[in-house]
Specification:
Blueprint (H helix, E strand, L loop, with lengths): L2 H34 L3 H24 L5 H8 L14 H6 L12 H21 L5 H9 L6 H7 L4 H14 L8 H18 L4 H17 L4 H31 L1
Helix pairs in contact: 2-5, 2-6, 5-6, 5-8, 8-9, 9-11, 10-11
């Protein structure tokens, strides 16, 4: 084989590899767009949920008080989340602050923005559970999540509310992933989202466990084979265990070193 033939084969191999990764990238983008896209029913439910959530949040905004840890943060200007094993909580304030010595108070915008993200993830979760439901049924079902009265406490924090609600949004997004996606891809995403939730607010571990068993209960009610349900619970538990392992032995160990 001549040198020219070798170069020609190398170029063909490079073009083939480039085509493969370009096709993979296009497929990932298409699947992501399809996942986050809401049809007319989903949009109506989402906007109704936004209106409901704003009215739910409005008394807290009108009260305009500094709650618990807010007092110290507003007075001393410290963040302190990294020492609590919640490093991702500090990122928005690092990006938005003009000063490293004084944390900015972005309330109520952070609370409103977090409520919007949470409502969107709830809509995705409701669409997964009830794909044929009307927008009103979808709205009323997922709006019940707001009747968790601990949510009022989370939203009362001027500084912590954004990270807390974002951490609580991720499990609903994780358990909304389409069934047609490969189990490996869903396991990796579940592990990553769980890791992010722990790095934002560790108490959301209960949401993952609750949604895992809630999803299994729904599938049992649909008379799905127990072997299939058991396999799904198994890879979900493995994925959650991987996320917890990385968080415990890499992130927490690094922050406390």
């Amino acid at each position: 084989m001549t040198l020219h033939d070798r170069k020609k084969n190398t170029n063909k191999g490079s073009e083939s590899l480039y085509t493969h990764y370009a096709s993979l990238e296009t497929r990932i983008i298409t699947e992501a767009q399809s996942f986050f896209h809401l049809d007319k029913t989903g949009r109506y439910a989402f906007f109704a949920l936004l209106l409901f959530a704003f009215n739910y949040l409005l008394p807290i905004l009108l009260a305009n008080v500094y709650y618990n840890d807010d007092l110290a943060r507003s007075y001393f200007g410290y963040l302190g989340w990294r020492q609590d094993g919640r490093p991702l909580m500090e990122i928005p304030y690092f990006l938005l602050n003009n000063s490293r010595n004084q944390v900015g108070d972005f309330s109520p915008w952070m609370q409103i923005f977090a409520t919007g993200i949470f409502s969107y993830c709830l809509t995705l979760f409701g669409r997964k559970l009830m794909p044929k439901a009307s927008w009103f049924c979808l709205f009323t079902a997922v709006a019940c999540v707001y009747f968790n009265f601990f949510m009022l406490e989370n939203l009362s924090y001027r500084y912590d509310a954004f990270g807390m609600l974002l951490a609580l949004s991720l499990p609903f997004a994780a358990f909304s992933l389409p069934d047609k996606w490969p189990a490996t891809s869903k396991a990796l995403l579940l592990s990553l989202l769980f890791l992010c939730s722990l790095s934002l607010y560790q108490a959301t571990i209960g949401a993952y466990v609750g949604l895992l068993f809630f999803g299994a209960t729904v599938r049992i009610s649909h008379d799905e084979p127990l072997t299939n349900i058991g396999k799904e619970i198994l890879w979900q538990c493995i994925a959650l265990g991987m996320g917890a392992f990385i968080y415990k032995f890499l992130i927490v160990s690094f922050l406390t070193a």
